[in-house]
Amino acid sequence: MLTLFAGTEVNAQQDMKHNYVVLTKKVPQLQPILITAENLKKEDGEHFGKFEVIICGNEIGDITDPAKIEEFIARAENLGVELVACGFSLNKFKVNKETVPKEMKIVENGILYNFQLQKKGYKSLSL
User: Fold this and answer.
1) Is 105 within 8 Å of 83 (Cβ atoms)?
2) Does the reported pTM lie above 0.85?
């Protein structure tokens, strides 16, 4: 319990949002990741905060294939999950950033971004 004013106590845990970040190297892993996000959203209720999925690695080009990514983008948007592309991976594997779906955020370095979110209290998982 946290006492804000004399006689007034607030449970800081009650007001806290649960934020999550998952780092993945394969687009098909979005299937179980989004199922997890859906379940956590139900379980956390009003305490569900942000859920971000960072995609990086040598299969980053799969995010530019509509047949492989469009369904996941729609599901992620419906759940309030943000899909993030690693700019370092895009550059390393020569994927044109212009071909990345507009619904996805691009960060300069996905691994660094993951650590920055962890420092903000995000629960993190790497697959």
Assistant:
1) yes
2) yes
